[in-house]
Each structure stands twice: as structure tokens, then as C-alpha cells.
Amino acid sequence: MALTVTDANFKEAVINETKPVLVDFWAPWCGPCRMIAPIIDELALEYEGRAIIAKCDVDTSTEAPLKYGIRNIPTLLLFKNGELKEKIVGSTTKAAISAKLNTLL
Q: What is the pTM of this model?
């Protein structure tokens, strides 16, 4: 299961993490977000111990989405050592997400 990140724990869970981190910015009412949700959960299991897979609900956490210019959801941000490395906007395939994540391992 993906880690839930909020404005309160974003710095600790994402920025201060030494492993690669994928953050899925989503909302419960977003159809495409619900479509990729199972992919995000699968990735969380597959990359356990090697990367952090997280989800941030843009309806309940607004600071992080604002800081990173999230205007469309789903948006996936990939971080390494606290630096934003990749951005994927819109729904995509598991293979595409894995390929970007693998470059950060």
C-alpha cells in the first residue's frame, strides 16, 4: 500500500528521504486518478525497500501541490535526495512509471 503524505509530513516523508520517492497527487473525485490507483499500489509492493511510493490528496493537502505547481491530476512527481527529478502529468501505464522510477534507483 502506498504511503499517505500530507502537508504536515511531506518534508519528512519526501524531501528528507534518501531513497527515490514517487508521489501521486490525486483526489477521490478524479476518474483518471482512480484508474491509476491500482498501479500505484502495485508499484508500492514491487519497489518496497528500494523506493517510497506515496499518495497526496490535493483536496486535503494544498501546500505541496501549490509549491510544485500541480494544476492537473493525476500528476506523479519523482524525487531523489529531495530533488524533483521527473514529472508525469495525466494517467499513464505502469511500464512508463516503472521506467522513470528505475532511472532513479
A: 0.96
How far is CA 94 from each of CA 18, 48, 97, 100, 105, rounded to the nearest angstrom?
A: 23, 16, 5, 10, 16
What mean pLDDT value characterizes the chain? 97
**DSSP result, 12-60:** IIIIT-SS-EEEEEE-TT-HHHHHHHHHHHHHHHHTTTT-EEEEEETTT
Q: Which active-site residues does the annotation give? A: 30, 33
d(CA 75, CA 81): 20
Q: Which three cell numbers, joined as nine digits, stand for 90?
A: 495525466
State whether CATH 3.40.30.10 applies to domain 3-102: yes
pLDDT tens digit sequence for 5-53: 999 999 999 999 999 999 999 999 999 999 999 999 999 999 999 999 9
Radius of gyration of the chain (CA): 12
